[in-house]
Amino acid sequence: MYAHATARILKYTMAVITVVTLHFILIRMMPGDPLVGLLGTRNYYSLLSLDPEALKAAGAEYGLDRPIHVQYAKHMGRLLRGDLGHTPYYGKPVLEVILFRMKWTLILLVPAVILSTVLGGSLGALAGWETNSKTDRLLTATFLFLQAMPGYCMGLILVLILSFHAGLFPLSGMAGEGSEGATRIGDLIRHTVLPIAALVLHGSATPYIVMRSVVRQSAGENYVLTAIALGLTGRRVLFRHIVPNVLPTLITTVALECGHMVGGVLLVETVFSWQGMGTLIYDAVVSRDYPLLSGCLLFLTIGVIAANALADLACTFIDPRVRDGMSHG
């Protein structure tokens, strides 16, 4: 078991190192001076025209006058110290800006992942158990439609109906200025309803389709037929026997979909003017702030890898077959 866990940790560590290495290579493959990618376009040309000596000192600080393997070692050392560089657009360390914005993205992403998994998984299990019923046909058509519609389009529709016409929720932004305490928390919750709803409606489609398929396949298994023969009712068979057996498949699916969910939340944030990682990346692209952009992409990559690692860990504890395979492997 410990050997298996060690192999998993090494695998995810190598994935992070690969991403960091590709980032290092891509910056140096860019046309022109690599300092453009390390300092940002605006900062680079400002130093080039006003203080060329400072620009040369910056190149020496990043080790650009050294051999490529020395540069790579220095780059890795800076990352291990948490030094992602300085963002010229905000005038602050990249890590400080990202950590501040990340919490606002997590406020949307974490509830959306949990709710979409519960909603899609439970309805998918019911549809798979009641195959070809009216409920199955209606739910499947609905979730296929939701899967085909991007999350940001769903957000625009919700804004148009529930905010613009009905006036039930704020059009965009976050908690209102000047509000404090419980009032500010309540205002923040009202601002999160539509973004989270857009993410849940779109994100629940894949868990629904996967659970419908695996429950439908498991309905003819021997352990299900035995449970029915012992007199258990349909819902008890479904939720006490089938769902625990197929739960690792759902967890793995959600982990694999995390990258898609992250991309969706970034676009939804832009629609709702939510000041999280989505708008941060947008600002970095528009201002050509390469240190900030690369830092954001690195954090998002690590987040997706961490989600897959947590899914592996959850499957290990939930499914005894995985534990048995690890102990014999």
UniProtKB/TrEMBL annotation:
Belongs to the binding-protein-dependent transport system permease family. This is ABC-type transporter, integral membrane subunit. It is found in: Cell membrane. Its main location: membrane. The keyword Membrane applies. It comes from the Bacteria. GO terms for cellular component: plasma membrane. Keywords: Membrane, Transmembrane, Transmembrane helix, Transport. Pfam families: BPD_transp_1. Residues 102-311 form the ABC transmembrane type-1 domain. The chain crosses the membrane at residues 12-30, 106-129, 149-171, 192-210, 222-238, 250-272, 292-318. The lineage of its organism: Bacteria, Pseudomonadati, Thermodesulfobacteriota, Desulfobaccia, Desulfobaccales. CDD domains: TM_PBP2. One of its GO terms (biological process) is transmembrane transport. The keyword Ligase does not apply. It is a multi-pass membrane protein. It comes from Desulfobacca acetoxidans (strain ATCC 700848 / DSM 11109 / ASRB2).
